[in-house]
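Teaching note: in complex prediction, the entire set of molecules is handled at once rather than each chain in isolation. The prompt given to students was simply: 'Predict the structure of this complex.' The entities are:
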Amino acid sequence: MMIGGVHDEKGRQMRQMRHSRHTSTGRWARALLAGAMGLTLATTVLTTSAGAASTPGVTSTSITIGATVPLTGPAAPGYDEIAPSMNAVFDWVNAHGGVFGRKINYDYLDDGYNPANTATLTRKLVLQDNIFADVGSLGTPTQAAVQSFLNSQKVPQLFIESGCDCWSNPKFPESFGWQPPYTVEGKILGAYIKAHFAGEKVGYLTQGDEFGQDFIKGLDMEIPSASVVSRQTYDASTLAGPLSNQVAALKAAGAQVVAMATIPAATALAMLPAAAIGFTPQYVISNVGADSPTVGPLLSSFTSKGGGSAAEAAATAGLLNGVITDAYFAPESNVSNPWVQVEKKLMAKYAPSTYAKYGLDGNVQYGVALAYTFVQALQAAGKNLTRAGLVSAIEKSGKKFVTPGLVPLSYSGSVHFGFQGAEVIKLSTSAPPAVTPTGSWMGSTPVSPVEVTNVGSGPVRTYTGKPSAPPQKLVSTS
Amino acid sequence: MSGAGNLADADLLPGTPPDAAGADRSWLRHLRLPEQPLARHLILALGGGGILYLVTSSLSPYNDFLVGEIALYLIALAGLSLLTGVNGQISLGHGAFMAVGAYTIALLMTHTQLNFILELLASVGAAAVLGVVIGVPATRLKGPYLAGMTLLLALALPPIADKWSSTFGGDQGLTTTVPTAPGNINPEEWLTWIELLGALITLVLLANFLRSRFGRMLRAVRDDEIAASLAGIHVARTKVTAFVISAACAGLAGAFLGLSTGVVSTGEFPLPLSIQLLAAMVIGGTGSLMGMWWGAVLLVYLPQWSTSISSHLNLGSDVSAYLATIIFGAVLIVAMIAAPSGIQGGLRLAWGRAVRLWSGLTRKQIQPTRTG
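The expected output is the structure of the full assembly:
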């Protein structure tokens, strides 16, 4: 119907132009018209050459999905490992015949963590490349920018790589989160502080954005406000030097426990000045800021940049000893875990260059687990693959998906959050170390049972189910 | 001829061929556009608008979206071209003016039910106010010092939005909504038309400015401030006005960027944006308005081309991620060597040569028939 309207309009314009032939601008009008006709013809030929399938991005032999992730820019280090790790899973699937005979093409583009780029690239993926679904795109502001567009186009926005509370929203039925929301992490760690450090003075050090605010929301639901003695924040975009002022304020307030929602660099920039002024609280840090293979090297490199000797730099990694954090799947150092074993084999075979560079760090594990979740969503959606069918399959059977996660996914018709649970762990020199190509880093041991909760007022309770084991097919063929 | 002095003539009327035969002169005169600037610019804008309407209605929604992006960058570049090319003041902080425009429209959309046109005008106004704030001290600074000050603006403004995150939405940003399209017009196409209309209005206004007394004052101040002030031109006032107009353009561009992105957050206005704007302006042709089309097309399409190049050549992600920046730099270098006055300047030169060649040829052909 649109096309008809356009042609009518064009005809009208043409008649108008013909009438104006004898006016003073006649030649200009004709030149413009000729140019326009030429361009119109050229673009019509170009645009009609692409055929339309019944479900965009799906043929009998292939499924094309896309994502926007930071491969360059400030957010790239670490996060640029996730998409190649996801691709390892898809390559494994494709090497074994695909899902219902369809091979997965994963088209991930670099948005540099800039929402304006995300908006353009996501439209390219959807309107030009005809992707079936947007899977594993990263970032809160970037994905918030395209949430409304993807939903209006009925394109599933699956497993957004962000812990924002905003992905489970009835207004956006196509959007699904995946990792535990920061509020859930805050609640679980807050409950641990309340139970194990009762009566002690607690200080907060958080990033001054959603990440920090959601985490604080969770902490405040559990920790009595009377015991919180100081609330410090830092600005991620201007994070350049040590967070000395914040640390000094926490020390002055007499904080015995410091709860932090920090990115890895900020964790290091807080711990180093604290150690320098003899401030040694019990650190409780959200998952993202306490990955020892990431934070350990940062502590050392900041120390040597600050003029410390090689021995001092090496010693600073020891500051992580005793740090409490949370995990939602078994860490790399847990070498006996069957998922860890499978993930190592899979990465070594299907993404050898990424594996040689980073080993099986937290980001690689994250990508593998997320991609495997998507593969199961495809299996659950069945042979007649449609976008609506995929979304309803996740809502219906998402809880039963087999993942490396310690708790099941919590998808349902009304909940679009993925994992809503974790176990509290303690970094320790006595635990088996995490060995990656960059060195040997502090391992961890669980200090609590696996716990589940939700972003609302639900209690933090022990999860009694067992973690799922990797399926035989994955074990035998990866 | 002072580079941009004949801007409107050279740009908008690409060399009417010299009269070849006297007999045809009366006929030819009818083909000339009116000399009166406003009428002439309006006719060209209407003609251009007609072409763009036909083009956008036949393009795919994705290409429409890209045309809209071209339009919004064109607005910012045209303002920058006026400031730097015509008035001789450099700005490395135009991303910050865009941010002000974007945040203004997003805040208005979040908290008020204002008319869409008024919201756009408020964005322009807010950026213009910042233009005054920056423009006044800028009159005392020149060259690298002015570049340094505007650079600081581009660096310092986004963290303000992070600092007061409850007002400015912090990391997650503020959402914007494009007014619903009438009928069943595709939303991408609708936004593109709004942006194109904004761009054409901006171009007409700026083209008129440049052909007016004010435009001549801008050039006089650029060429020699002392001579200009001896001629009775208030130098400081002229420079501040140039800054305000330029900032207002960037404000409108920023509002459109906020609309087409769907979210306004600090990550949209990084330092590279300001620097790319400056580079695109230089490539397009400093001081020219029509040349900004080239700059805007490059800004929008270069990342697209580099993605398809790298996928054709199967380049690794560590190369392909930087390919657009590399090509952009290479184009800048080539443009500076081959056409120091930008693409538009190069084309103008080539057109002039072609016309001279053509008129030379026809004269030779005509002469024998006359004598014979």
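Point out the following to students. Residues 7-371 of chain B form a domain with the ABC transporter involved in vitamin B12 uptake, BtuC fold (CATH 1.10.3470). Chain B touches chain A through 57 residues (CB under 8 Å).
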